[in-house]
Amino acid sequence: MPEPLTILTSLPAPMLRDNIDTDQIIPSREMKSTGKTGLADGLFAGQRYTEIGGREPRPDFVLNHPKYADTQILLSGQNFGCGSSREHAVWALAEYGICAIIAESFAPIFAGNCVRNGVLPAALARADIATIAEAEAPVTIDLSAQTIALPDGRRWAFDIGAEAKAMLLEGLDAIDLTLKNANDIAIWQKADREARPWIYLGDGT
Amino acid sequence: MTRSLFDMLWDSHVAADLVGGAQLIAIDRIFLHERTGPAALNALAEAGRTVADRSRVFAVADHIVDTRPGRGDQTLMPGGQVFITELRAAAKAAGITLFDVNDPDQGIVHVISPELGIVLPGCTLIAPDSHTCTQGAFGALAWGIGSSEAEHAMATGTLRLEKPKSMRVTFAGALPPGVTPKDMILALIAAHGAAGGKGHAVEFAGAAVEAFSMEGRMTLCNMATEFSAMSGFIAPDDKTFAWLEGKRYAPKDEDWDAALAHWRTLRSDPGATFDAEIAIDTSAIQPMVSWGTSPEASVGIGGHVPDDAEARPLAYMALERGQPLKGLAIDAAFIGSCTNSRISDLRRASSLLEGKRIADGVKAICVPGSSHVKREAEAEGIDRIFLDAGFEWRESGCSMCFYAGGETFGDGVRVISSTNRNFESRQGPNVKTHIASPETVAASALAGVIADPREVH
Asked: In the Cβ-directed half-sphere of B250, how many Cα atoms lie within 13 Å?
């Protein structure tokens, strides 16, 4: 079950490119087991290390800069997390310590994976992201208020769906929550089985 | 009130309204593969939960299976065998249907699901695989999700979702000769960007789409995810129904008649409204080829690298601004993937290759999308044409569409590929991928340089 996320303050690491795909976030070659852990070392492996498969840090990669050693927030451009649906991208980010990503937009599958793992995908306008990056100062994200603030008082409202917000704020388990609607689902299926008998392939077990 | 096809697909699956505006959407079909499926099945079992309706969950080994002849569970990816054996064990424990490595129905998930009639018009279908939108070609709402969402859908038969915005993309006019659905979708993404569909449910419409075979429609819908859409889909018609009739999991007898009556209602009402609309003049589309590291970085085959191209993709691809794409030397050619590996793709590519040899020094590989496609191609002698031309002819699977640590073309080589992603190191360490239609891949393999398929004689 993900940890609840309410208020977060961290110096955000800028990766201000568009279309950062999940192959970049976690290359397929770094997905070595069927589990959800042991992925942080593979995060951004293609850019973070001097050679493919190696572990020697590249000094020019943003997360290798000592200033961003403890960062919990990434700043990026549009369509962050595009490409493969691999949830390993979010598992790797979360295990590394990233709790929130502020980007112009997110690929829909990636955004869903973030929410299921307690990582906040906060959408903000391109110019505002540029302003935050230029400030090179810690930002405070207040999920309840849906705001991102700099220490000098500048503050922006960000977009997030109501369902995603509730799931993140309370660290809810989606399956437990949905099973509270088990009766609704059973009623719907009974009616659907009469309306569309041909969609069912067995007795429903 | 008028309704779009998307409204119909969505509204007919709302099992409950949730607090805050989200809804519980009933899921009719779930498909897993060995790369992301074991995580979902294992998490479900570890939580002490079971699959709500096993009859509607399927799994296949396609992503990292070896595609060389005589294969077993061994795979070229280090440690890859575990993904296959874990999927097998977890599928058995969960009681779901598995198409195993050497099953006669094995193949790429989005190729075999339609072959078996698992996807149906009007159904909701999910898989922890971004190219699940391929199956929207059948008038289904089909989309990719993560492993956690797959686990949720297996446990509850539903997903918690906020209804996405809708978009219609209309391809007006006929398609010029030699131009394919792959070129159309690349042209759309090049014109409107890789984020152009930003979370929308996208209906593809227009005369060109209606004229396509089901396979062409699958190619078009396949890359809706490369447009950042939630899904892409096409209203079902007689071609759709003819494709599905008699397929193993498709309805039979009176069920078929009832289903057909329902499916014929699945089209957007005249006057239906969309949150966004895009019109594409199909007659202006050329065979497309990518130059950069996002599908949006694509141009017509006669074009050149844009003058305002960014430095990073230029450096990665070892190209210069203004450089023409046609005539660029390639090291390798790949025909395969859920985008372009169906029988009609192989027929069209082989018609260009027949009686010819690929250029010296080019490594060329053809990987049929399913075991069924492979057998069909072999019955038609298409395998011989590929082999005689100098291509390798493989067992089906995702193969070198992506690099998982096993097989690749070689460090930094330049590949022309009928796949869907030209991301950095996607096909191997530093591999420079140019995505294009199977025809363009075949023409380029013959020439040894990026070539226009319309000029092959």
From this structure: 22
Domain ranges in chain A are: 7-172
SS3 content of chain B, % helix, strand, coil (to 5): 35, 20, 45
**Which residue bears the tokens 């995908």?**
A121
**Average pLDDT of chain B to the nearest whole number:** 97
CB–CB contact B148 A35 (8 Å): no
Topology of domain B1-285, per CATH?
Answer: Aconitase; domain 3 (3.30.499)
What pLDDT sits at residue A1?
67
Q: Please, which residues have CB within 8 angstroms of residue B83's CB and are 6 or more apart in sequence?
A: A34, B34, B35, B38, B63, B64, B75
Q: Give me the long-range contacts of B138-141 (CB less than 8 A, separation at least 24).
A: B138/B114, B138/B214, B138/B234, B138/B236, B138/B240, B138/B243, B138/B244, B139/B5, B139/B233, B139/B234, B139/B235, B139/B236, B139/B240, B139/B263, B139/B266, B140/B9, B140/B233, B141/B6, B141/B9, B141/B10, B141/B13, B141/B201, B141/B231, B141/B233
B162 touches chain A (CB under 8 A): yes
Q: Which residues of A touch B130 (CB under 8 A)?
A: 83-85, 109
Q: Does A181 contact B18 at a Cβ distance shorter than 8 Å?
A: yes
Q: Which residues contact A160 (CB under 8 A, 6 or more apart)?
A: A120, A121, A122, A123, A143, A146, A168
Contact B216, B309 (CB under 8 A): no
Cα separation of B147 and B153, whole Å?
10
Q: A83 contacts in B (CB within 8 Å)?
A: 130, 225, 421, 423
Backbone phi, psi, residue B43, to 5°: -65, -40
Report domain A7-172's class: alpha beta
Interchain CB contact of B15 with A (< 8 Å): yes
- The Cα of A8 is separated from the nearest Cα of chain B by a number of Å equal to 24
> Terminal CA-to-CA distance of chain B, rounded, Å?
54
Q: Which residues of B touch A185 (CB under 8 A)?
A: 15-16, 24, 26, 156-158
**B103 touches A at CB < 8 Å:** no
Residues 6+ apart with CB under 8 A from B355: none
Are A102 and A122 contacting, i.e. CB atoms less than 8 angstroms apart?
yes
Q: Could you give the 3-state DSSP secondary structure of residue B8? A: helix
Among A87, A177, A185, select the one facing B148 at the smallest CB separation: A87
Mean pLDDT of A172-195: 96
Q: Which residues in chain A are contacts of B126 at CB distance < 8 A?
A: none
Please tell me the CATH code under which domain B291-455 is placed: 3.30.499.10
What residue segments make up the domains of chain B, in order of their start?
1-285, 291-455
Q: What is the pLDDT of residues A71-89, one digit of tens each?
A: 999 999 999 999 999 999 9
Nearest alpha carbon to residue A74 among A148, A159, A157: A148
Domains B1-285 and B291-455 share a fold: yes
- Asked if residues B65 and B71 have their Cβ atoms less than 8 Å apart, the reply is yes
Residues of A in contact with B194 (CB under 8 A): 18-19, 79, 82
Instruction: Give the predicted TM-score (pTM) of the model.
Output: 0.97
Query: Does B124 lie at the interface with A, CB-CB under 8 angstroms?
Result: no
Integer Cα distance of A167 and A176 in angstroms: 12
Residue B109 tokens read as 């998930």
A5 CA: distance to closest CA in chain B (Å)? 18
Q: Cβ–Cβ of B404/A201 closer than 8 Å?
A: no
Judged by a CB distance cut-off of 8 A, whether residue B403 touches chain A is yes
Spatial distance between the Cα atoms of B98 and B37, rounded to a whole number of angstroms:
11
Residue A204 has pLDDT above 90, yes or no: no
- What is the ipTM for the molecules in this complex? 0.96
